Amino acid sequence: MATMVANRAATASNKNQQSWLAKQVKKRFPGFVSLVALIAIWQLAIVIFSPSPVVLPGPSAVWDSFVEAVKDGSVSEAIAGSAGPLAIGMAFALLAIPIGLAIGMSPVADLITSPHLWAFFALPNVAFAPLLILMTGLSETTRILMVVLSASVPLCLSCKDGVQTVDAGLVRAARSFGGGRLSVFYKVIAPCTLPFIASGVRNAISRGFVGLISVELLIGTRGCIGGEVRDSLRTFDTARGFAFIFLLIAIALALVSASRYLEVLASRWREEVVL
């Protein structure tokens, strides 16, 4: 009897795994087809128009340059060189979460800070680069500060808006049952704001990564992804430049996918609380 139950459980588990795999294949298949079509169109344009490799290299040349960069260690060095400032900058940018929550809970603080926050949010990230270079020079500190400035403002605004969208009826109900300020925050405001925090983190990672690459391209830092793109294009090694640009795209997609998964988890948790 126990063997039959175990076999049924194993069969059900296999079916669930196959169902999950089928869903993932169905979900990813259109993107894969579009990627193959893009590469085919790219190669067709190379065959028809025969552009100079300096202007537009072919897919095979870009792939060969990427493989060569992997073999000589340039890819791993560039990823490590950009990952450090991004991680440190994002760690400091997370301090915007409590600041945004505090601003959202205080109408006076919101009135004072909102115009400045939205003004900083509207500015392009690269506008901060000359000032940061003037203050800190061509150093790693410049890249870290660029990530902090690029990521902290949208994260702060998202947290602030999340607090302001909390149902006032829930807050009044919690206070009517004797809940203090901290109790209301931890039991009502924080759970309802969690999806906004997750969304803010996703936007912060995207903007922080863009800010990092923009300042790397501007100052030409060696041993990082932006520096590799800049050096490759300056030496007219367009195939290598394209290879690192596609590496940038892959890393950006991975970061967005990971942060989106966090946002989905937070949204599901909020739905469970509301229901």
TrEMBL record:
Cellular localisation? Cell membrane
Q: Name the source's superkingdom.
A: Bacteria
- One GO term of the biological process aspect: transmembrane transport
User: Which is a Gene Ontology cellular component entry for this protein?
Assistant: plasma membrane
Q: Where does the ABC transmembrane type-1 domain start and stop, copy by copy?
A: 82-257
Spell out the coiled coil positions from the record.
none
Q: Which residues cross the membrane?
A: 29-49, 86-105, 117-138, 242-262
What keywords sit in the KW lines? Cell membrane, Membrane, Transmembrane, Transmembrane helix, Transport
Question: Chief location of this protein?
Answer: membrane
Question: Entry's Pfam families?
Answer: BPD_transp_1
Membrane disposition? Multi-pass membrane protein
Entry's SUPFAM superfamilies? MetI-like
The question of whether Cell cycle is a record keyword is answered with no
Q: Which family does it belong to?
A: Belongs to the binding-protein-dependent transport system permease family.
Can you name this protein? Taurine ABC transporter permease
